[in-house]
Amino acid sequence: xxxxxxxxxxxxxxxxxxxxxxxxxxxxxxxxxxxxxxxxxxxxxxxxxxxxxxxxxxxxxxxxxxxxxxxxxxxxxxxxxxxxxxxxxxxxxxxxxxxxxxxxxxxxxxxxxxxxxxxxxxxxxxxxxxxxxxxxxxxxxx
Length: 142
Prior knowledge:
By secondary structure, the chain is mainly beta. It has one helix spanning about 5-15; strands at about 30-35, 40, 45-55, 65-70, 75-80, 95-100, 105-115, 120-130.
């Protein structure tokens, strides 16, 4: 192959590369939410665990604000005070827990939202069913 042909192949290969062909974008984790128990009798005490699954330890998920919407008119917010993020050194927190009591029967969709600088970065929900316990006259709708 002559020099001109080699140079043409190299130029064509470089032109086909995207401009940001350096480092690949880090894979973001996904948010999972579990309720324990998912079905109970009133009054019910529920433990919720939100967990970041997979992905890399990226700054966007470092030190988030966690907002819990209980679907019974209540909300809770957890803010953290964290050290600055250092790429390759800092490990993001991956597990967040909260507890909530449901006094009345009902089907509740609990939602957790991770925020950074008042901007949602991840959200998910789980359904919790609370059946009428002894003395609870709350009607159940399916």
